[in-house]
Write a structure and sequence with these properties.
Two copies of one chain form a homodimer.
Chain A: H1 5-25, E1 31-32, H2 33-43, H3 52-64, E2 68-73, E3 81-86, H4 88-112
Antiparallel strand pairs in A: 1-3, 2-3
The structure holds a DNA duplex (30 and 30 nucleotides).
Chain lengths: ~120, ~120
Amino acid sequence: MPYIASRVLERELKKGSAELLILSLVEDRPRHGYDISKLIETRSKGALKFNVASLYPLLYRLEKRGWIQGRWVEKAGQRRRRYYKLTLEGKKVLAAQRRGWRGFVEAINRITGMEHA
Amino acid sequence: MPYIASRVLERELKKGSAELLILSLVEDRPRHGYDISKLIETRSKGALKFNVASLYPLLYRLEKRGWIQGRWVEKAGQRRRRYYKLTLEGKKVLAAQRRGWRGFVEAINRITGMEHA
DNA sequence: ATGCTATATATGGCATTGCGATATATTATT
DNA sequence: AATAATATATCGCAATGCCATATATAGCAT
């Protein structure tokens, strides 16, 4: 029963940054859930992997809060997709979350002695 | 009912990095719980605040895993304190967690477009 | 035909766990 | 006498991440 610490850390950390990730990814263009999950995997080079059982409920929560707005898109020969776009309110939240993220990283680095990271 | 996004983010993120913070703080010298909680507050300039109802159970968990080792220190005119020191196993875990943290930050920055942060 | 993989969304339910609230104990300050 | 700071401890609720599973479509291999 080896305890793989860094993997645990990453799994735990992903939770808190999930909103920031999603909001960032729908910033430039509307995206559907599966697209978001794949983007997170590829852009992080496999370091982060979003479980769909976490992703979809989170998308619903963000939409309920009015940070993203979804609409169904039907296309022949394709399963229907729900594309989410960032709302005006969402833009403000994203800006705040980016500030929060930066401040948080600085705080952690200060405490753990990783200034130069 | 204003939704303070960055505060939510920080609270959520703190969870995952809690182990890294504690292990880092007992790296140079043994420290007791209250000391650790105060250090996190001061070194982060108030950005991070550890709830004691989270801190103490976490210390027990880390000790149970063998990453830190505690011992009671009694001193006249003082409430008894439990000083935790980093074990050999803990040192390895801390190194792995630091690598994990760095990789995680890089992954997030890549995904959210904050390379230059 | 059949099975497997990728795409795409959805959810029941369990297990984890963060934290508000509260408690106990000692010392110093007002 | 009351309050604040130091120091550790825990009950119990609420939040939520994810395993497992389900549904539906399309492409490709066997």
